[in-house]
Amino acid sequence: MLQKIVTSLARSLRPLKKALEDRIEESKFEQKVKQALKNPGFDHQSQIVRFKYEGKDILIKVPDPRDFISFTILSRNTFFDIHDLEALRDKIPAGGVVIDAGSNIGNHAVYYARICGASRVYSFEPQEKIYALLQENVTLNNAQDVIVPYKYALGDQPSRASADFQDDIVISGKKKQVNYGGLFLKEDSSGSFEVVTLDALLLPQLERLDFIKMDVQGFEPKVIKGARQVITRFRPVIQIECMEKKMLNEEIIPLMTELGYRITRVLEIDYLFEPVA
Fold first, then answer.
1. Which residues have a Cβ under 8 Å from the Cβ of 12 and sit 6 or more positions away?
2. What is Dmax (Cα atoms) for the chain?
3. Three-state SS for 186?
4. Which of 97, 155, 169, 212 is the most exposed place for a label (fewest CB within 10 A)?
């Protein structure tokens, strides 16, 4: 009888325990946000973060300090994904040409332009609000002559797409951290996002291409298929983010192998593909 009472009591307390755990995690997150907002380089009114990198003033306007990418820039006072950027810096020669597929607010594009010394960066971001910030960040960093922003999604054929879901970061059972960089798209003929191919848009104007960064939330195989001619002609180094092993092994690697590429480096969820010698 006593055991039944104890079991019943424990069961009845589970919701309370879960609520308490959620409250603790939410409190921890809010404390981290408060600490990040103390960054002396952050102007609350303009939402611009200013920091120095290798002696250069870098300015990044963010959509929301609680957004995953924005929060990371604020809390670390440097570029988002800085370890990956530094690890692959030698793959982008001074004067090189880069495609930034999935540019978000322009974090990587600014790094390629201001730090690597790229001569041209073609940046693609389909979300209206985030694209507007990409444009502002290009101007803030005096990179108008280098970074060319496009408000397109990329795919394997001209089409349209709509939002499928946004991969926000779970903080607790009730709270998530917004992640504008985690928007997944789906093909939709009446969708609000215009989809183009890299071959159709850039092949006629490219004279060289050294590097492609691809972070397009599940559209990677489609983007590769829509860039076959560009890849075949210029043989750029290609960085592909992929969080699904099944997609990587069954779709991306076969496509890249067919194009004459192999994986030369793994950076957590990013894979570096280079042409087979």
1. none
2. 82
3. strand
4. 169
Rounded distance, CA 226 to CA 223, Å? 5
Is residue 252 classed exposed, middle or buried when 0-12, 13-18 and 19+ CB atoms within 10 A define those classes? buried
31-81 pLDDT per residue, tens? 887 888 889 999 999 999 999 999 999 999 999 888 999 999 999 999 999
Q: In terms of CATH architecture, what is 42-275? A: 3-Layer(aba) Sandwich (3.40)
The residue extents of the domains of the chain are 42-275
CA gap 19, 14 in Å, rounded = 9
pTM of the model: 0.90
DSSP codes, 38-77 = T-TTEETTTTEEEEEETTEEEEEE-S-TTSHHHHHHHHHT
- Strand runs (DSSP E) across the chain, as ranges? 42-43, 48-53, 56-61, 97-101, 120-124, 147-150, 153-154, 159-166, 169-170, 176-177, 183-187, 193-196, 211-214, 237-241, 261-267, 270-275
Half-sphere exposure of 16 (CA within 13 A, CB side): 5
Instruction: Give the pLDDT confidence of 138-170 residue by residue, as tens digits.
Output: 999 999 999 999 999 999 999 999 877 677 767
The amino acid present at 63, given as its one-letter code, is P
